[in-house]
Amino acid sequence: MSYVFEPAPVPTIAVADSDDLVPVRRIFCVGRNYAAHAREMGRDPDREPPFFFTKPADAVVMDGETVAYPPETENLHHEAELVIVVGTGGRDIAEADALSHVWGYAAGNDLTRRDLQSAARELGRPWDMGKAFDRSAVIGPAHPASRAGHPDKGFIRLTVNGETRQDADLSEMIWSVPEVVSILSHSIALRPGDLIMTGTPAGVGPLAAGDVCVVSIEGLGEITTTIGPRG
C-alpha cells in the first residue's frame, strides 16, 4: 500500500532552550476567558460554561516569523494568549488531576480576521473563516512545566510597534488551566501534542502591514511577529 499523495509534514513548535520540537496534533481555543475582553466584545462576562473552537495544526507560526496580511479581511486583530501543551492524554480528566496531563506552556497570538468572525457570529455560523485561516496560530517556544511550573498568575502583555495594547494578569482568567483541561476532556479525548489557547484579555485591536507585534508572558519570555504585505 502506498499513499496517493505525499503525507504532509508534522506541524511543530519549538522547545525553549532545546533543539527538541513538540509535534502538534490539534489546536483548541477557549472563547472569551477574560471578563474585560467579554465586555469589549459586547458579551456577558458571567461564569457561563466555556466554549471552544479550533485551528488547524498547520496554522502554527513560530517566533520571529513574518505573517502575510491574510486575504479576505480588512480587520486583522491580535490576541495574546497563554498556550497549554498537553503531554498526557485522557478523557473525563478530573480537575484535581488536570495539571498532571500538562507538559508545558507557551506564549501565543490568536490572529483573527475580526470582520469575518463578526459576520459569521451575527448569522449564527461557525467562526472557522475568521479564526482557522492559514498561519493564524503564532506559538512561541514551549517551556516544560518541570521548569516553568504551572503559571496561574503573572503578566500577559502585547505590544504593537512598542505601544502596549494588552496588559493583564493570568489570574484574571475566568476559567483556570485545570478547569479548562478538565472541561475540554469531558467533551473530547485529549492526546499528547494537543495545544489549548486559553483566551485573550481586553485590548484586542487591528494590525497593519509592517506592524511588529510582541507577546510576553511572565516566566515564558516573549514572541515577535511581523505582519507582511497582503498575501
**Which structural class matches the secondary elements?**
mainly beta
Q: From the structure provided, what is the oligomeric state, counting identical versus distinct chains?
A: single chain
* Reported CATH architecture: Alpha-Beta Complex
Q: What is the helix/strand order?
A: EEEHEEEEEEEHHEEHEEHEEEE
Whole-number tally of structural domains:
1
Which strand-content bin applies to the residues? 35-45%
Computed CA radius of gyration, to the nearest angstrom: 17 Å
| Overall mean pLDDT | 95
Helical element count? 5
Low-confidence stretches: none
Relative helix content: 10-25%
The CA-CA distance between the termini, in Å, is 38 Å
Classified in CATH, the superfamily is Fumarylacetoacetase-like, C-terminal domain
CATH class: Alpha Beta
Sheet with most strands: 8 strands, mixed
Shape: globular
Count of β-strands: 18
Say what the CATH topology is.
Fumarylacetoacetate hydrolase, domain 2
Keywords: Hydrolase, Metal-binding
GO molecular function: acetylpyruvate hydrolase activity; metal ion binding
Organism: Oceaniradius stylonematis
Pfam families: FAA_hydrolase (PF01557)
